[in-house]
Amino acid sequence: MKAAAFSLIVLTLNAAGPRRVHQGWPTRREAIVSRLKTEASDAAAFQEVWRPEDLDALAEGAGHPFRAHDADLGVAVTSRLPILSSRALDLGDGYGALRARFVAGGREADLYSARLEAGDAAAVARRAGQLFRLAEFIRAESSTRPFALMGDLAAAPDDRETRLFMDLLEARDLCVSHGDEVCGRTLGERRVDYILIPYSSRAPRRTARSAFTDPLPSDGEPSPLSSHFGLRAGLDASFPRLRPAARPAGRAEALGELGAILESARSEADRRRAETGWIPLLGGRDAAAAQARSAGLSSLLEEVRSALIRAQHRP
């Protein structure tokens, strides 16, 4: 295939599939499959697809004979193109990402499907840690090849942790064109789903758009196909030539801010442990949970600080 003729249509959807079949899911899955047929994508990233039989149905609807799936994390990548290899990143508590490698435009490229933890308060620090580890995973796996990160990052574009993540990778959000949002909300009143590629000075000719926004056919009150809307984008001939930045311009500053977020969260966990440790039974359980959180945050903080030292001293 000539580079000038290269085109790859990709989409992402958090399908909100069940771990066990329940009433309503077969109808909803059928409607998603029907929509997949009309989207005519070359590759897709799915989240919250836990059962292999559900992935089979979605892949067949999309016309994708090749698929990679981590059932424990509920993330998958399907494709018309052969998948050469795959690797999963387990971020704990059922969250993580899956990398699938294939050949695009005569060169190897990576597609990622990711799903991170949603929520406010303590979940923000945990999500920040997940984003750091996801960024490190992508930098290690795709250092010499283009990537498209697709999925549910559980944070809006203007959230602090999202901004830091973009700086860690020096990535381009295909839902933003000339500073304007072009996809709109994907969950509630926010957009938490993304298609990201390595940044380049040349803006891509095509941007992303919302997908799977049609309501489920119903005689009563219409309901959505999934709890999330999806996204669809066309990757043009420039995509196979993209390479991640070896030294993203904002990486060191982003690592410093991440360290501050994690340090604050660890201090809060230590405070919680001290306040509840003296209370019998319930207090002991809460103190143990706070101790575990503090230990996890300490380990993560050391990883961030080590990455910051490397970023500051790398020639």
Q: What is the gist of this entry?
A:
The chain is of the alpha+beta class. It has helices spanning 25-39, 52-62, 122-141, 160-169, 251-276, 282-313, and strands spanning 8-14, 43-47, 66-70, 75-79, 85-92, 95-104, 107-115, 147-152, 171-173, 176-177, 180-181, 193-198, 209-211, 215-216, 223-224, 230-235.
Q: Kindly state the mean pLDDT as a whole number?
A: 91
Largest sheet: 6 strands, mixed
For the secondary structure, the number of strands is 16
CATH class of the largest domain: Alpha Beta
- Strands of the biggest beta sheet: in what spatial order? 3-4-2-1-16-13
Task: Report the C-alpha radius of gyration, rounded.
Answer: 20 Å
Q: Considering the protein shown, what is the CATH homologous superfamily of the largest domain?
A: Endonuclease/exonuclease/phosphatase
Structural class: alpha+beta
Q: What is the CATH third-level topology name of the largest domain?
A: Deoxyribonuclease I, Chain A
Q: Which stretches are poorly predicted, pLDDT < 50 over at least 5 residues?
A: none
Distance between the termini: 38 Å
Query: Tally the helices: what do you get?
Result: 6
Could you say how many structural domains there are in total? 2
Oligomer state equals single chain
Shape: globular
Which range does the strand content fall in? 25-35%
Question: How is this structure best described in words?
Answer:
36% of the residues lie in helices and 26% in strands. The chain has 315 residues and is of the alpha+beta class. It folds into 2 domains: 3-241, 4-Layer Sandwich (Deoxyribonuclease I, Chain A), CATH 3.60.10; 251-313. Helix 1 packs parallel to helix 2 (52-62) and helix 5 packs antiparallel against helix 6 (282-313). The radius of gyration is 20 Å and the shape is globular. The mean pLDDT is 91.
